[in-house]
Please model this.
Amino acid sequence: MVRQELKKLVIYGFFLAIIITPMVGFKNNDFDAARVLQTLAVLIGLLVLNLIVKLVRSKRPQRAPGHKAWGERVRERIEQIPKVFTLGGLILITAMFPVFADNYMIDVAITCLIYITLGLGLNIVVGLCGLLDLGYIAFYAVGAYTYSLLNLKLGLSFWAALPIGVVLGMTCGCIIGYPTLKMRGDYLAIVTLGFGEIIRLVLNNWDSLTAGPNGLFGMQRAALYYPTFQDGGLSWAVYNIKSLPSLYYLIYIIVILTIIGVRRLDNSRIGRAWVAIREDETAAELSGVPTTWIKLLAYALGAGFASVAGAFFAAKLSYTNPNFFLFMESCIVLCIVVLGGVGSIPGIIVAGIVLIAAPEIFRGLESYRMLAFGGIMTTMMVLKPEGLIPAKRHKREFIETKSNE
Amino acid sequence: MDQSAFILQQIVNAIFLGSIYALIALGYTMVYGIIELINFAHGELFTAGAFIGVIVLTGLQSFGFVESHFVISMIIVFGLAMAYVAVLGVAVEHVAYKPLRDSSRLAALLSALGMSIFLSNGMMLSQGVSDRAYPPVFGVQGIDIGGAIITNGQIFIVLLAIAMMIALQLFVHRTRLGKAMRATAQNRTMARMLGIDIDQTIRITFMIGPALGAAAGVMVGLHYGAVRFDMGFIFMIKAFAAAILGGIGSIPGAMIGGLTIGAIEVFWAAFLPSAWKDVTTFTVLILVLYFKPSGLLGESESEVRV
Model:
């Protein structure tokens, strides 16, 4: 076994050398051997590490049936504690976050929360319904631009524009969803990608409305109105949500509402219909699930959550520009869903925090961020397709199939 | 330039661009035909070919080999780029696609997408974010046909592309390996029972398809004079539109589709606002998928499913 693995290692190392040498060596016109050797050393180091892990695992005695991995045990322990303490504690800590964090940390946290909202929305389409959507960021753009335009051209406030943005986002979701309903998974991916690009290009080229690549700026922030009794009578005072802590609380509430919404949907009749479609569309249809409507609903709801996040984003920066909505952004959101575990709400929250906050901590490795995201996506799919924190429903399915064997 | 010459010039450009799209689309079609998976990394393999092309070409030019032995140096440039990308294609297949051959489609697609992001950023890190210039080898002289000018470079590239397509068609229909490939695409289980080495066949598909893409990459580099790490993305979508339009899985279909998409793009840019030309391609892609997902020459959907 060791011999075989070593042989494999040599072959892989050889191919890696062939692939790496010209690409990394010739950045300029002369050959840079040090660069090649460094890259090769890192990659072969990873391979060796993988080999060691594999060997150690194979040496370990076979586990008794019914034995659980430590992750499983931790999870069970946590589930034994009453929900009031675990959930309440989490909510308390996250709600207190702006009190002890500095502005930079709060800003990063806001970005994390935006991506978590997006991840949860995309989770409906990809995780629950099993439809691969590569143009998801377009709905985020729709939300951002709807608020910006309504505010700049018509002077609508954030709260008045938000429902319009959501409706528009959902409509776009249906427009994109409708022609793709008949398609198979992989065509669907390309079509959604195409739609996402179309929306970005329209925003980029429609100069008279969207100001093209310059973007729109000068939108009002979201505002809160509260009654005051100064000057002897009831009047309404305005508080602009402009400071970072107040923005944090706004997106915090949005995330909480999104979590509640997605959870309720997941456990509802509609959620079960989505999962049924994901597992076997033909069987679902035969069991009486109206697949067309249910799939459209997944698109519309996913898009709705994204437009809320988009409107918040535009109000936060008071600026939008088509380049915020590149294809890469869709990939980042998709990576969050994949890493966390398709269909799993806690997984997506953890993955959102890890993937968005980690690049901020390791600032020096910024340029490796997307490389890592791509690598994570492939590795997860090959090694652990159910994600870091698998959805409970998934887990049950795995256990059931095992007991049948 | 009068109107007829202008239109003639556009036709020339359309044929040129179309044959490049067709060459990339062939890679898609072959891979899709055999494992029913969109190879998202195909655009990146195409870009990798273009990079190897520029590296080899600058290397050859630095000691004046290109001027003295033009044909041999072109063979070396194309040969090395295609060989490199063939190795890379097999590596991608082995790492990202092979372990997922029997799992859900969503998992395979996500894995392919991850590979595409990984390769594109790997090239960004290794080759830099800015354009990398191709040494000009063809010059500007060409043939004048009724006012339209076809440069020597364009003639060379189109002829080479056509030669490759013919060679591919012959390979797939006249050789044992090609027969094995068609059999695997039709019914993998049956092909295995008949003694065809499925892994080997898929590996060879992943050598030929990306190698054609690499050749297209070198052509694009030679013609436009630059490569960039993210140029694969837009070419990927265009070529995919071409593959779909022609009917995915069909080799002549990919050629027709490529020429059509090239023509649509060139004529749109010539007569209508060119900023919208990509929107047009995407719209064509969506319309084809909606109204005739089997494409012009493809098998019908139900046949593929069975």
About this structure: Residues 3-35 of chain B form the longest helix (33 residues). Chain B touches chain A through 59 residues (CB under 8 Å). Chain B has 13 helices and four strands.
